Each structure stands twice: as structure tokens, then as C-alpha cells.
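Re-run with default settings, no changes from the original entry. Doing this only to confirm the output is reproducible before filing.
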Amino acid sequence: MAEFIDLVLLAMLALTALRIIFLKDLFAVVMLFGIYSFLSALIFLNLDAVDVAFTEASVGAGISTVLMLVTLAMTGRKEKQSTHSTLLPLFVVLVTGAALIYGTLDMPPFGHPDNPVHQHVAPRYIEESPKEVGLPNMVTSVLASYRGFDTLGETVVVFSAVIGVLSLLGVRRKKRKDLESGLESHRVLHVVAKIIIPLVILFALYVQFHGDFGPGGGFQAGVIAAAAFILYALVLGLPKAFAVVGPRFLQWMAAVGVLLYASVGLYSMYRGGHFLDYNQLAADPIAGQHYGIIIIELGVGITVFAVMLNIFYAFGSQAERSNVQ
């Protein structure tokens, strides 16, 4: 049954991708990209990769769709007719696809217990993680403890992304009071947003601090919290969102999250251990692992929240400025 579901989802994924290629309406393309991400999340869920599915749904189908819609407000809804030949791009795609398919021919059978991936480090994580880290969610143990260096690098990459966006676009504060959201007059949306936004923020806090026991963590929680404030900005307008959480404050928050993560590693070195050696944070190594993971996940959540919201502010302010002009 699982294989049948995978085949159905893959077929829907392929049909969605083909439809995206031939559409000229960019708004419809963005909507289909959201559906594509949602289908990908369902595939990950069917593979029991719940944490990855959670991230794909929140980032791919959520924030990315919103940012692309804001980009459309700056550019336009219709795709311009290309004057270049499509033969060369088609040739590049076919050659790349053929190379990728050729590279999969010698792969081991899918899901077989004797595959190399199941004989490398996975057995050690499964057997030793409960004793060394003590968290029920083994994915969090791997990402936040065993692969702490890698997760720190990912956090720095996210921080670097907002630096690039702000360097190119910046965030323009509104000088005109009448520069509000187009949804300003929709009172029903105001009421619904005021009901939903606190619940979204509460769910983000749950995801943040429940990552030790189930799917979640800093990346997902940061995106969900940012989505709540993005909804606020879409319904009530950017000026009011700036009054609640300003761009300058978010820039400081993005840096504070990275520094909070790195400070855990520096403190563990100060205590005589290695960088990001959580065992040094408490007399009991298991308790030290818990403290370290909670702190670094909080740093990740703060950075991701600040980066996502700042990127939206940058694109949103550009879009409203272009509409005024």
C-alpha cells in the first residue's frame, strides 16, 4: 500500500511540474509551486520522515509561496515572451536528466535493510543515542547534538541570506500614512486574523520546545512564528507590522540567534570540553545535552524567525513602493 501511495504522489508531482512548465500565468505558477511542495511533504511523510515533511510544508508550501507572491507584486503576473531559442535549455535539461537517471542505475534496492546507509552510522545512533543524549526524538539528537557543527553552519547560511537580501533591497520604511495593505478594508479578515495569529504563535512555541519529544525544533518554529507576523502584515499593512516588530530589531535578533548558538560552543570550551560539547554544561552529561540542545534550538528559532520576517519586509516594502510609483 505504501508503494502505491508513493507512485500516486510521484505521478501527481510529475503532472504538477509539467503544468508549471507550460503555464504563462505566474500567479498560477506560484500556486502550483505551493502544491508541489505540499505533495513533496506528503511523500516525506509516507517515508516516515516527519521532521523533513514538517520543514517542507512550512518553508516550501508556506513562506516560499508568500515571498513569491510578494515578488509578483513587484514584477507582474504574466510571463514575457522569450525571444531566445528553447532548444539549448531543452538540450541541457535532457542531458542533465539522463545523467541523473544513469547515476541511479547502480543504487541498492530501496528500503533494503542491508543497504550501506543502514550499516554506516545509523546503528550507532539508534543504539547509543538514548544513552548518550537521552532524547525521545532521535532526529533532534542527530541534528542538534551529533551534527551540531552542521546545524550551526546551516544557521549561519540562513543569516547570510538575510544579509544578501538586505544588501540588495533594504527595507524602506513608509513615509505616507495611507500606504496600507490592500486588505485594510476587509473587516472579516481582521477578525479572523486576530483569532488565528495568537494560535499560530502558540503553536510555534509548542513546536520550538517540543522538538525533543516529537517533530519540530528551531527551524520549523521560526518559520511558523514568522508566518503569523507575515499574516499580520498582509492583513493590516506593513506600517503597523513595523510598529509591532521593526526591521532594525529583527536584524539584531538574527545576529543574536547565531551568537546564542555559538556561545554554547564557546562555553563548553571554557569548561574544558570541545566546541559544542554539551556534556560540559552540567554535572550530569544527559542533563548537559538537554540544556545545550534547548539553547541552540532557541538560537536557531530566533534567527530563522528574524530572517524570514526581514526578507518579507524587504520584498514587501519594495512591492508597495513600486505600486505607489
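The domain at 1-87 is CATH 1.20.120.1200 (Four Helix Bundle (Hemerythrin (Met), subunit A)). Residues 60 and 128 are 33 Å apart (CA to CA).
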